[in-house]
Design brief:
heterodimer; A: 112 residues; mainly beta; 6-stranded mixed beta sheet; 5-stranded antiparallel beta sheet; 11 strands; 0% helix; globular; B: 111 residues; 7-stranded mixed beta sheet; 4-stranded antiparallel beta sheet
Amino acid sequence: QQPVQSPQAVILREGEDAVINCSSSKALYSVHWYRQKHGEAPVFLMILLKGGEQKGHDKISASFNEKKQQSSLYLTASQLSYSGTYFCGTGSSGGSNYKLTFGKGTLLTVNP
Amino acid sequence: DSGVTQTPKHLITATGQRVTLRCSPRSGDLSVYWYQQSLDQGLQFLIQYYNGEERAKGNILERFSAQQFPDLHSELNLSSLELGDSALYFCASSPGNEKLFFGSGTQLSVL
């Protein structure tokens, strides 16, 4: 089942912060986050495995609450280069049988 | 460059036709995933192969089929094409269950 992302779109000014949420009705093994710029392929940002860990990548970090089956992506002090569509992907099992299902995406626009 | 190669980049065909999309994964990656991307549905998971075997299936239509060959490249076959099949089709590869590396996609237009 497709995870639900919110908000669907967000507009920021450079330097502002944003949070993108991802929730699933199924038990999760892992959560992936990807960013896709217009006309390009999605690019991996980070992966979080069950255990409630939080990861960071420059000024972008994420958390994964296994019990709530939710993940959030935090973008701080946004830059123009952060603009794009952010997708969360949820994996429901480990091993080589791995179905990674993506949400519909959140369009982030960062203006000067 | 992700290291994943998809051909062709663009494909224009007519309804009722059959096409084949090709994907060469990154060297050493055993998993290949196929996704369909349309404006209103985001990235829809179609199917996953691992070392030549089908391992997970998503919302793939019966008119669609795929396979992964011994050299690990994969093909997605779409037949009896309909207007609604027009979309961007991505292939991604992964060494296992880690991050996916996406190819640049094949833009399919069914007229």
